[in-house]
Amino acid sequence: MDEQREDVGKEATGGKEDTKRAEVTVEHQTIEIQGGEGSSVKWEEWINAIRSGADKQKTTDQHQHRDLPKIPKVPNKLRDKLGFTSYYEPSVVSIGPYHYHKSNTNSQIGEMGAVKEKAVKLFFNLNKGERKTSDGQLINNFAKKIKGVGDWYEKDSTRDMDEMEFIKMMFLGGCFIIMFIRCILHSNVEELGMTKGTVKSVQQDILMLENQLPFQVLEVLYTEIGFDKSDLLRILRLYIRHRARGHNWVMQSAGILKSIQGNEEELANFINKIGAAVEPQFDDYKDVKREMGNYIASKRRAWLNEVIRDYLRSPWTIIAFLAGIFLLFLTAVQTYFAAFPHPGNGN
Asked: What pTM, to 2 d.p., does this model score?
């Protein structure tokens, strides 16, 4: 009976005594680990499988990160809970694909279609004497050079557009932004046929989070019309400076952030609402955070160096500095006792 049990045991283990077998699945790979007397455990295969899986996951994560849109839409949980649509939805003019459909449903946005066409006419008149290409050739060159800018947007936003419609949308939007900025800088917005109220709304709309064009679109248009990229950067800087004039500065004490979208309180409320709804990602913008910390620390060091240079550069300045502090202390004590006399001093 014992011999029979021994045979059965050997048969169940494939004829090997005291052998234990296990299977480990790592990234869809099944690794068999053998253990027991007289057998070698294949740890190297298991570790190599883990390493391979980790490298694969890292590559996948990097690929997904590269594929993220560069002009993303506001996340749904921010849309649903916070109700600050005025920060990302345009009121009078749509730029790009995210609110393109509103041209058919919003009367004000629809009316801006005619203004965009006026902007195209004005754009074609720019630098006409120096330009060597016809209007049609300019558009053809533009269409060739902006191939791929649709990838800057979320895919579902351009799914129902054919290539020609997308190019027309980019061309109209780019011409409008360029001519609107130029007209603002030259104080002749009447050429676009807009009222002062509309101009103010447009200035807000072209800064909306979901109402943006890739810079490549503006660059191609400006160079195709015969100007340099430096000319485009110059008018953009002038326009931003023009918009910022008269507005206040949040992180203003450190000189980090400028607000051209509203006053300090409004911007602070906006940021606080966003911060309350999003999950913290501690690794995001870590380089920016480090640079901000270094910048603020450098300001503090500069202030400390200035104090040392002006007040502690020699023994005499140190004595004068300490004497000044001591006099301030005595003045504070004297003021205190004058306001709250001690009952034992006869007063």
From this structure: 0.58
